[in-house]
């Protein structure tokens, strides 16, 4: 598929394609052409030109999402191209904007917005080397620190110290880049490039370090907070966090696995849960909440009823919800506003079929994403599922891997899915008849790949043929056995793997020591 380019854009491409010529003649370019030249340079991966454009940026703001997004001159959105060379040229150009004293342009730049960059699985840039969210956090922090050192040592124009540029970025901090980010945030006041954290993700970090850095990010401006995987945050820590820090603009909150465990609850814990619910109620912008792999049986109402704003996204996968929880969700004011819902890991047909379908009917006018993985949906439930999904005409994504469905049932379901006009992405299970007879669900990791791969390929071809015959080639159907693509996890998996091995080793050593003492 080719995207039409205006004559202006074609001319811009011609201008930047000769890097030496473009760099020499930038001084003669009108200010309002810089955005056009930037997008053309990014498309052609002209790193040196990108650097010089940013170094001499003549406008008040520099918004990556808008600059790379669909424009009248070139409709294609390039904001998902996280090309390492282009982004590095961009950020070093920003550093040199501060240092360049001979630029012919007056320094007007006040705001740089890097939050519009989207991390995706498939990259189209020629170099195929990406710069993810973690690496962008690392590089910007490094450049801010280097800039300060240089300004303190060199004889700079006094005007350089008057430059103040807010750089909006989604920070991603782990143990490996923690010190560097902390230094950049601590020295924010004296650095011309001021890191402004719009979203914060932390992984593989001790609680002490998490609490320290979150205060440095200016939580009053934070819109998204993700505390994931290897941050051992439990309910009492969450209460301390909410009692000591206010998040007035927070729109999205992700909590790590096992934050809550109601099976161990005391009267004090019940009060603590109520306090957390009330604190979340004070976050009047909060519309997205993810609490997967916590045990919340019978407590969903206590946690969600204080919220003043209806949720648009709710992830309560593997949270051991009971009938009372589902009944609350189905009748709550959140139900009519849910655009994304994840109820994975619950035996829906067995535990609360009618309540689930009531919830589905309430959110059907707005629902865009539905995830029902490992929900024990069987062949006998498919007709009922089709009935429930029929009103969901805005559904764009449906994920249901891990369910014991036969290839025949999948074909029946796919025939229906073709009728959902907005559908773009389907994640379906390996058919039950591809596994050995007697396999039990949910399938453990050891047996997950032990299926007839040839038969699976044949079934996949048949399912794609159903899509093709219905003119629905726009729908991507896949079976990600070990979960959907997660750019952040992908980028830091080496560090996380090393952390898990270290934790396992420490546990083993403690066990051995205890065993030796007993002996």
UniProtKB/TrEMBL annotation:
Keyword Cell inner membrane: no
Taxonomic superkingdom: Eukaryota
Any Gene Ontology CC annotation: cytoplasm
Record protein name field: Leucine-rich repeat-containing protein 14B
Keyword annotations: Leucine-rich repeat, Repeat
Protein family membership: Belongs to the PRAME family. LRRC14 subfamily.
InterPro entries associated with the record: LRR_dom_sf, LRRC14/PRAME
Repeat keyword on record: yes
PANTHER family noted in UniProt: LEUCINE-RICH REPEAT-CONTAINING PROTEIN 14B, SIMILAR TO PREFERENTIALLY EXPRESSED ANTIGEN IN MELANOMA-LIKE 3
Organism: Struthidea cinerea
């Amino acid at each position: 598929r080719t995207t039409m380019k205006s004559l202006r854009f074609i001319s811009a491409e011609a201008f930047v394609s000769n890097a030496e010529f473009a760099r020499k003649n930038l001084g003669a370019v009108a200010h309002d052409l810089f955005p056009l030249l930037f997008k053309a340079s990014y498309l052609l991966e002209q790193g040196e030109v990108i650097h010089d454009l940013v170094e001499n940026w003549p406008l008040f703001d520099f918004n990556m999402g808008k600059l790379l997004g669909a424009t009248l001159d070139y409709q294609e959105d390039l904001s998902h191209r996280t090309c390492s060379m282009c982004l590095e040229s961009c950020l070093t150009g920003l550093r040199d904007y501060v240092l360049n004293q001979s630029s012919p342009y007056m320094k007007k730049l006040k705001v740089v917005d890097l939050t519009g960059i989207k991390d995706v699985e498939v990259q189209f840039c020629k170099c195929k080397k990406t710069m993810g969210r973690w690496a962008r956090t690392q590089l910007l922090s490094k450049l801010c620190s280097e800039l300060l050192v240089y300004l303190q040592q060199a004889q700079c124009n006094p005007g350089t110290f008057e430059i103040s540029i807010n750089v909006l970025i989604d920070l991603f901090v782990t143990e490996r880049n923690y010190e560097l980010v902390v230094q950049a945030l601590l020295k924010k006041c004296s650095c011309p490039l001021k890191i402004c954290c719009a979203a914060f993700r932390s992984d593989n970090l001790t609680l002490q370090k998490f609490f320290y850095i979150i205060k440095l990010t200016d939580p009053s401006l934070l819109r998204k907070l993700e505390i994931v995987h290897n941050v051992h945050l439990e309910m009492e820590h969450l209460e301390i966090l909410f009692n000591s820090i206010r998040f007035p603009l927070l729109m999205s909150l992700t909590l790590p696995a096992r934050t809550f465990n109601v099976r161990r609850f005391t009267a004090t814990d019940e009060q603590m849960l109520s306090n957390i619910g009330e604190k979340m109620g004070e976050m009047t912008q909060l519309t997205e909440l993810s609490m997967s792999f916590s045990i919340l049986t019978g407590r969903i109402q206590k946690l969600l009823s204080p919220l003043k704003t209806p949720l648009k996204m709710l992830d309560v996968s593997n949270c051991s919800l009971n009938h009372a929880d589902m009944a609350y969700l189905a009748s709550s004011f959140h139900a009519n506003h849910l655009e994304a819902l994840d109820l994975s890991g619950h035996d829906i047909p067995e535990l609360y079929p009618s309540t689930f379908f009531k919830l589905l009917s309430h959110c059907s006018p707005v629902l865009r994403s539905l995830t029902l993985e490992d929900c024990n949906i069987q062949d006998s439930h498919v007709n009922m599922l089709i009935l429930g999904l029929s009103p969901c005409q805005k559904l764009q994504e449906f994920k249901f891997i891990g369910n014991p469905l036969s290839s025949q049932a999948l074909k029946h379901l796919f025939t229906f899915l073709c009728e959902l006009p907005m559908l773009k992405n389907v994640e379906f299970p390996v058919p039950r008849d591809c596994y050995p007879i007697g396999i039990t669900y949910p399938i453990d990791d050891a047996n997950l790949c032990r299926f007839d791969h040839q038969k699976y390929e044949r079934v996949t071809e048949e399912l794609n043929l159903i899509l093709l015959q219905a003119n629905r080639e726009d729908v991507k159907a896949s079976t990600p056995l070990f979960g959907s693509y997660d750019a952040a996890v992908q980028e830091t998996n080496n560090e996380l793997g090393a952390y898990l091995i270290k934790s396992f080793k420490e546990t083993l050593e403690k066990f051995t020591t205890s065993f030796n003492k007993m002996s």
